[in-house]
Amino acid sequence: MPGVLPDGEPVPRDGSLPASARRAVGARGFGVYVHVPFCASRCGYCDFNTYTASELGGGASRETYADSVLAELALAARVLGDAPPPRVDTVFVGGGTPTLLPADDLARILDGIDRTWGLAADAEVTTEANPESVTPESLKTLRAAGYTRISLGMQSAAPGVLAVLDRRHSAGRATAAALEARDAGFDHVNLDLIYGTPGESGEDFAASLAQVVEAGVDHVSAYALIVEDGTRLAARMRRGELPYPSDDVAADRYLAAEAALGAAGFSWYEVSNWARSEAARCRHNLLYWTGADWWGLGPGAHSHVGGVRWWNVKHPTAYAARLAEGASPGLARERLAPDEQHMEDVMLRLRLASGLPLDVLDEAGRAGAERARAGGLLDADAYAEGRAVLTLRGRLLADAVVRDLLP
C-alpha cells in the first residue's frame, strides 16, 4: 500500500503562500506535475500513491478525475494570482498509470495548464504510461494535444522477471509501444528498466538492454529494485519465497547498463538516467534536481514554490472532497532551512554529470571531496576545474560520497 506522508505544519484552508514565496516563483524555472493515482492492478514492488478500482471506494472515480485536477489548478491560479505569472517550462503527468484516463481527459488537463499559466513555446510535456495502456490511436491523440515525450514502464524483457514484479504486459509490448509512440510523432521516448529482481540473470538483463537499444528510444532510466515495506514483494521475501536483492548483483547490472548504453550512443547525465543527446534529457526531472519550482496537482502530489514545500492529502476521495468545498487539498507543508536546502542541493547535484561546484562545500566537505578524488570516486579533471563529478566507480558509491561531503 502507499507509504506514509511526512509531518509538517498545516496548509491554510485557502492554500495561501507567504509573499516571499510568491515573489520568487519561477526564478529558477517552473514546472507542473500531475499525479494520476489509478492502476489496473498493483505491482508487487510498488508503494506509490495509487489505487485499483477495488481500493478506491466511493466518492472518487476516473470519470470525474480531470474535473478535480482542473479545480486544483484554479485554486493554484488564485494562490499565485498577484505574483508575476510563471511560464510553464515542463509538465509531467505521472502515476499510477496516467493513460488509464481517456486521452481526451489528459488533453483537457494540459489545455487547462496552458490557459492558466501559459506553456513555454518549447515546453516539454511528458506522460508516463504502462505499455498495455496505450494504442496507436490514443498516442496520436496525446501527441496532437501537445504531449512531446512519453515514458513507458518496461522494467524487463524477461517473462519470469515481469511475473515476479507482477507486471501485466508481455515481454515485447514495451518496445512495440515505443515504436508506436515514435510513429505517432513523439519527440522523445523513454523506457524504464528495473534491475536486480530475484531470479533475474545477467542474460535476462542483457536481453532487456538489447531490446531497449533496438527500440530506437532516446532516453533510458534504469533503477535497482528497492523492496519497500508493506508491498507484496516485501511480504514474499519475509516468508522466504524470494531472496532479497544483492548489492553486488545490482553493481554488476549497473556496469552492464553503462557498457551497453554507452556503446549504443547514450551518455549518463544523472546516475540512473542516460540520453542519446542533451535535447533528450528529461528537463522536468532536471528541474527537480536543480532546485526549481513546481506545482503538484493531484492526491499525494508534492509541490515546491519559493522555498515552501507541501503535499496533498493522499486518497482521491479526500482530495476531491476538499476541492468540492473550495478548500486546498494540501495536507501539510514545510519551509526548508538553509542547512536543509544545502543538504538537498549536494545530494541531488552530485548525482548529475554536470556535478557540484566545490565552492558550495564547507571546509569539512572540501576535505571529504579531496578524499573522494584521491580514492578515484571523483573525476580528477573536473576536480581541477572546481567541480565534484562522480566517476563510474563513484556512481556505484554515490550515497557514500554524499555522506562524506556533508557535515
From TrEMBL:
Signal peptide start and end residues: none
Keyword Electron transport: no
Pfam families the record matches: Radical_SAM
Places the protein is found: Cytoplasm
InterPro entries xrefs: Aldolase_TIM, Coproporphyrinogen-III_oxidase, Elp3/MiaA/NifB-like_rSAM, HemW-like, rSAM, rSAM_sf
Residue ranges of domain Radical SAM core in the record: 24-267
Keyword match Iron: yes
Entry keywords, A to Z: 4Fe-4S, Chaperone, Cytoplasm, Heme, Iron, Iron-sulfur, Metal-binding, S-adenosyl-L-methionine
Family: Belongs to the anaerobic coproporphyrinogen-III oxidase family. HemW subfamily.
Summary of the function given for this chain in its UniProt record: Probably acts as a heme chaperone, transferring heme to an unknown acceptor. Binds one molecule of heme per monomer, possibly covalently. Binds 1 [4Fe-4S] cluster. The cluster is coordinated with 3 cysteines and an exchangeable S-adenosyl-L-methionine.
NCBIfam families: hemN_rel (TIGR00539)
Name this polypeptide is given: Heme chaperone HemW
